[in-house]
Write a structure and sequence with these properties.
mainly alpha, about 75% helix, elongated
């Protein structure tokens, strides 16, 4: 009987574990892009043109993560959470695209205040992606697995904005002034 129960639980757990392993790759790669963005923004001596170029590279990498997220095949009960995962990755891509566009509009130090505001709006998408990931993907996926009797399967974490100050216009003004 114990072997039968273990076999049944393994059959239930297997698809969830496989899915979460794939999510871990997607979520981990996206979180790494966030860490790379943070390092890029705060790297000393970087020039505006170099930052723009590298930011476009990060946006391109996030676009690949979006495609990978869209290709994941979630177990039936996690389909709604899968949609949230894709939305998170799209928010991150959108935020990176917006940052790249805002940086391309910077021409001189007089534009620093406006640029700071524009950059803050875009970075708020990145902060929102962390909230949506936590509330609509991670927590709800765990709830679904608990309801389905799936045990021993962890839902990976994914934080894109390690420094919440990055969402403030004041912080972005300082970044822009340092770049000019």
């Amino acid at each position: 009987l114990i072997l039968w129960v273990n076999a049944c639980q393994g059959a239930r757990t297997g698809p969830y574990q496989s899915y979460m392993n794939e999510v871990e790759g997607v979520a981990g790669d996206s979180a790494q892009i966030g860490r790379d963005l943070n390092a890029l923004i705060f790297s000393s001596g970087i020039q505006l043109e170099d930052l723009q170029s590298q930011l476009e590279g990060l946006q391109s990498a996030q676009a690949q993560v979006v495609r990978r997220a869209e290709d994941l095949d979630a177990p039936g009960p996690l389909r709604e959470q899968q949609e949230s995962l894709v939305e998170v990755m799209l928010l991150r891509q959108s935020g990176l695209s917006g940052l790249a566009a805002a940086f391309s509009g910077i021409t001189d130090a007089e534009a620093a205040q406006q640029a700071g505001s524009d950059l803050a709006v875009q970075s708020q998408r990145l902060v929102a992606s962390d909230v949506v990931y936590e509330d609509f993907f991670r927590v709800r996926a765990q709830e679904v697995m608990d309801q389905q009797g799936v045990t021993g399967v962890a839902v990976p974490e994914s934080t894109f904005v390690p420094n919440i100050e990055l969402a403030s216009a004041e912080s972005w003004v300082l970044v822009v002034e340092r770049l000019l």
